[in-house]
Amino acid sequence: xxxxxxxxxxxxVLLVKRAENxxxxxxxLPGGFVDAGEDPREAAIREAYEETGLRVTITRLLDVFYFxxxxxxxxxxxxxFEAQMIGGALCAADDAEEVAWFAAxxxxxxxxxxxxxxxxxxxxxxxxx
Length: 129
Hints:
The protein is of the alpha+beta class. The protein has helices at about 40-50, 115-125; strands at about 1-10, 10-20, 25-30, 30-35, 55-65, 80-90, 95-105.
């Protein structure tokens, strides 16, 4: 199981550039695997800090994803949370090569179906404002 966080500030979303495979060099939402016995919300908070240097608080559950990989093997369940920054300093670390804020119309090449799905919903919501 994995947990990811969707952090938006002033109509920009926070993404990390992956330093390792899978999808090395592409951008995704901060996140990673949930440790055995760990609460997925705590994993999301931990991963956000490890990859971005930011302290966050979870504001709500966004979605739960389960995807089949192209070779047919199941990928882990991905739990997506919305989070709000509460401190820290932006700094790429852990398995993130870079971390940056992106406007909806200036997105880099994205990794993972869950990132694509959440970004698509976010862009749609912005067009309705």
